Recover the amino acids of this structure.
């Protein structure tokens, strides 16, 4: 049954001038009128919903300056409706595809009759605008196969076609509606096959460049993640580096324990780059970031058609990629129990199977794993396999928390000043001793990662060449437990620690602005009444 054509005319005063019978009967005419005054105003193509039914509205201007709207019913799930709703320039994009002077488009109906020929093709074949419409496509376009595509329903991609002594590469695609072929589209991809060859040459060149940069990346990994990246001279760090030197050459599993942000991945890279497997890149897997449904396919790989959405050619898993190299399983404590069983098998004999395959594959990698969770407690709660624990725990290395090596903070800060400065182009070169003292007084629950973040943030918002106490105002908003002081100072409570930081900031600002309280309040982002309150506290202390 044919869908009635809904037509609405709106005069230049914005009143309804005409509506087809179907548009009036359904209430669509009034809906279109309101739509053109609202969200559809000024749009050549837009989407409209009325009573749960979705329509596409195409508008144009008549010779007597009326607005003509053609309204077409579309299913709610239609990609066309979604495109029109999401993209404000939908009409311009569709118009570009139809009139693009560099690509010709031909449209035929189910009887292979021409329904559209783009302007560039009309000129190429010597037709005036619209003269070729309504004729069989074989009579207009030399060596066309659009009529064959309509008959067979099979697309023809990247085919060479001779037209008027010119060779072109074209796509011919059938158009389906409810599973039935209702027409076909022909589209010129390139003017000549030579241009295709040129594109192929460029792709080959780009692939060569990618291979080159991959090799460079391997070299950068070796240079970037050595022992030198583990910054510190505290006893805890000296001991950790010595343990890494001793363990790295041994082909045994290593388990790295430590809090989140303490630098476990740096230790893993140092182990790999000091090992006999350093020539191949280490494979890193964050078990905590993998969705439970993708853990097995990521680790073991999958065969063609193993599941919906799988690549046709299948995919190698992390175990295959880590062959003759090292694999770092970060946050291994987050690995599902069913995957732990399969991981245990791979560790024991290096044997595994891709998802969707019965073929046995082998791999030979050095396992490095880490977590910030208490695996012993997880074993007691039956959340982690005890046999896997002993397999991954050949040697244990502990990365100390930052609060356990506060003496390393000055070295870390100077390291970050150099690295971050190079990356963001900052002019900051040093840090004021009072600011450094304040940083050493904090407990840093986020460890080195949190310190790096705070230093970077301070550098971004500092205009001068030195980080001061004022540069770290954001630390006042840290959770209370992060401000617990360990320094030997007069502060004995969290409140006193925060107060000392505030007083120090105020003193520095007063010095910079020579006692101008208005400017001090503006710089520190506080009211003058709050500033006077803090100054009174300072006076009572002195």
């Amino acid at each position: 049954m044919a869908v009635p054509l809904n037509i609405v005319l709106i005069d230049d005063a914005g009143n309804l001038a005409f509506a087809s019978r179907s548009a009036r009967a359904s209430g669509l005419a009034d809906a279109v009128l309101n739509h053109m005054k609202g969200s559809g105003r000024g749009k050549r193509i837009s989407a409209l919903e009325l009573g749960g039914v979705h329509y596409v509205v195409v508008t144009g201007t008549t010779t007597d300056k009326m607005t003509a709207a053609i309204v077409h019913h579309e299913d709610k799930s239609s990609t066309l409706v979604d495109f029109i709703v999401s993209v404000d320039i939908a009409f311009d994009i569709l118009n570009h595809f139809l009139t693009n002077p560099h690509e010709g488009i031909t449209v035929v109906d189910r009887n292979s009759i021409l329904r559209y020929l783009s302007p560039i093709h009309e000129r190429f074949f010597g037709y005036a605008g619209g003269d070729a419409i309504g004729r069989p496509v074989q009579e207009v376009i030399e060596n066309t196969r659009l009529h064959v595509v309509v008959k067979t329903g099979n697309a023809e991609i990247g085919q060479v076609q001779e037209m008027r002594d010119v060779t072109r590469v074209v796509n011919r695609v059938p158009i389906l509606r409810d599973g039935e072929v209702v027409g076909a589209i022909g589209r010129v991809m390139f003017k000549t096959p030579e241009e295709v060859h040129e594109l192929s040459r460029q792709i080959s060149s780009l692939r060569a460049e990618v291979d080159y940069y991959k090799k460079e990346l391997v070299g950068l990994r070796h240079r970037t993640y050595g022992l030198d990246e583990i910054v510190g001279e505290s006893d805890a760090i000296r001991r950790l580096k010595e343990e890494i030197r001793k363990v790295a050459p041994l082909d045994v599993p290593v388990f790295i324990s430590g809090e989140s942000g303490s630098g476990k991945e740096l230790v893993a890279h140092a182990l790999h780059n000091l090992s006999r497997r350093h020539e191949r890149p280490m494979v890193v897997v964050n078990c905590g970031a993998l969705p439970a449904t993708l853990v097995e396919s990521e680790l073991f790989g999958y065969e063609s058609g193993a599941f919906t959405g799988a690549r046709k050619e299948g995919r190698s898993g992390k175990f295959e990629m880590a062959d003759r190299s090292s694999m770092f399983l970060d946050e291994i404590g987050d690995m599902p129990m069913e995957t732990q069983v399969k991981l245990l098998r791979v560790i024991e004999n290096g044997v595994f199977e891709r998802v969707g395959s019965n073929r046995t594959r082998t791999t030979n990698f050095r396992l490095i794993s880490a977590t910030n969770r208490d695996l012993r407690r997880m074993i007691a709660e039956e959340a982690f396999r005890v046999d896997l624990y002993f397999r991954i725990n050949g040697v244990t290395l502990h990365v100390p928390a930052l609060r356990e090596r506060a003496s390393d903070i000055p070295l870390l800060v100077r390291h970050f000043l150099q690295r971050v400065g190079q990356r963001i182009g900052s002019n900051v070169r040093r840090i004021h001793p009072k600011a450094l003292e304040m940083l050493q007084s904090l407990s840093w629950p986020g460890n080195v990662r949190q310190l790096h973040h705070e230093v970077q943030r301070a550098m971004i918002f500092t205009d001068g060449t030195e980080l001061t106490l004022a540069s770290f105002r954001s630390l006042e908003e840290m959770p209370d437990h992060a401000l617990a002081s360990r320094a030997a100072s007069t502060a004995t409570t969290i409140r006193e620690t925060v107060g000392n930081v505030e007083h120090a900031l105020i003193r520095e600002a007063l010095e910079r602005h020579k006692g101008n309280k208005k400017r001090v309040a503006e710089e520190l982002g506080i009211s003058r009444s709050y500033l006077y309150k803090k100054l009174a506290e300072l006076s009572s202390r002195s």
